[in-house]
């Protein structure tokens, strides 16, 4: 369980952190999760295109490979050295950003509390299809049965 948590954190933060450093992000720690999700999405899409079985081991291996490549680029690049902090952002901008995040979280909390799951096909979308993708290793599950003509 501990190993799973460590690999999940590294898989969801490390590639995005390294990419953020390469892209001159002033706050790579903040952008690391979003960039890691973009990398994860691209990894899964390209695994599907290349007909590679989608599973925990294959996705983790691909993310590790991407992290190693980004680490090598970061090591060779001068962009990964942390620059000296320049002028601090005005307090008003920080308050505005914090207020926007709070409003978003309130909206999400309201949505989760009042209508967490809507629709008759929720089980099919969130449970059945995910299990079939992991079972078959790709997202081309058609739902046809062997007995159906």
- The overall average pLDDT, rounded, is 76
Number of helices: 5
- For the termini, the CA-CA separation is 44 Å
Q: How many β strands by DSSP?
A: 0
The residue fraction in helices comes out at 55-70%
Mass-distribution shape: flat
Structural class: mainly alpha
Rg to the nearest angstrom?
20 Å
* SSE order, one letter for each helix or strand: HHHHH
Report on the biggest sheet.
none
Plain-language structure description:
This protein is mostly helical and about 150 residues long. The chain has a domain at about 1-85. It has five helices and no strands.
What are the key terms here?
149 residues; mainly alpha; 5 helices; 69% helix
Mind sketching the topology for me?
Blueprint: H1 2-22, H2 28-49, H3 56-76, H4 91-114, H5 122-136
Helix pairs in contact: 1-2, 1-3, 2-3
